[in-house]
Amino acid sequence: MRIGVISDTHGLLRPEVFDVFAEVDHILHAGDIGSADILVELESLAPVTAVYGNTDGFDIRGRVEQVASIDLEGLLVTVTHGDQFGRPDADVLAREFPGRDVLVYGHTHQPKLELVDETLTVLNPGAAGAVRGDGIPTVAIMEYEPVLPPRARIVPLGQ
Q: Cα(132)–Cα(118) distance, rounded to whole angstroms?
């Protein structure tokens, strides 16, 4: 299974996302979506599990939850924007969402891939839309086969 991971689009879905996510089986969006149109465009590529972020309006909040948990072929994934924890980190998320294989979050606009306790993958794909400072837009790709641990990588956009 190939999973596209995106966050912090803030209403901007860069064309490069369509190339990077061309062969994904599922997409996870970790909030600050910006417009329901973003979800419609992503759904044209693959099924989407999304959550709202702190800047999302009532249109988005009426469509998605603050936290989503999903079983993807035996891979237990929780997605949250993370703003409810201030500036979230892997340890806080691992405590808040025990028993998961993968925790996906956004909010910080900083891409991060971390292994906790040798079994839990914590992933922030960075910001795909508006970036802060001298950051570059990024997404992530995660690959999963039921007999192996998930593998993920951060993918810069527009490089």
A: 31
Instruction: Tell if the pTM clears 0.90, that is, is over it.
Output: yes
3-class SS shares of the chain: helix, strand, coil, % to 5: 15, 30, 50
- Under DSSP, the state recorded for 20 is H
32: left (phi over 0), alpha (psi -120 to 50) or beta: left
Per DSSP, helices labelled H in 3-84 are 16-20, 36-43, 58-61
The full 3-state SS of 99-111, as one line of letters, equals: CCCEEECCCCCCC
Give pLDDT tens digits for 48-106.
999 999 999 999 999 999 999 999 999 999 999 999 999 899 999 999 999 999 999 99
| All domains in the chain, ordered by first residue | 2-156 (3.60.21.10)
Residue 91: partners with Cβ closer than 8 Å, 6 or more residues away:
116
- Looking only at the bridges linking them, the beta strands covering 151-156 and 26-29 are unpaired
